[in-house]
Amino acid sequence: MSVMDRIKAEVEGHPIVLFMKGTPQFPMCGFSSRAVQALKGAGATSFHSVNVLEDPEVRANLPRYSDWPTFPQLFINGELIGGCDITVDLLQSGELARMVAEAQKAA
C-alpha cells in the first residue's frame, strides 16, 4: 500500500483524525498540544491520532495529500479542517463542538 493510500485510509477510516507531532497524551510541539486541547474542549471524547514523528513517510507526504504545509492537521469526516489556529478559532466560535458532535454521532 502506498503512503498516499495509507493516509487516505486513516482519514476515511475514522470520523476524527489528528495528524500531530507526538500523541494526545504526550504532544511533542505546542501547536499539536493546543489542537488536542481544542478537540477535548469541543467535547471530543475520543479521536484517532497519527504521530507523524514516528512515520517519516506520512510526515513527508501528508502536506501533498492535504495541500496543507504544516502540522498538526485535523480531519473530520474525511475533510481537512486545518491546523492549530483554525482549530482553536473554531473552538472559540462554537463551530468545532458542533462538528465534533456530528462526527461522533455518525461514528
TrEMBL record:
Matches recorded under CDD domains: GRX_PICOT_like
Binding site for [2Fe-2S] cluster: C29
Name of the molecule in the record: Glutaredoxin
NCBIfam families assigned: Grx4 family monothiol glutaredoxin (TIGR00365)
Family: Belongs to the glutaredoxin family. Monothiol subfamily.
Domain Glutaredoxin intervals: 16-81
Keyword set, alphabetical order: 2Fe-2S, Iron, Iron-sulfur, Metal-binding, Redox-active center
Residues at which glutathione binds: K21, R59, F71, C84, D85
Keyword Iron-sulfur: yes
Keyword rRNA-binding appears in the UniProt entry: no
Organism: Arenimonas malthae CC-JY-1
GO MF annotation list: 2 iron, 2 sulfur cluster binding; disulfide oxidoreductase activity; metal ion binding
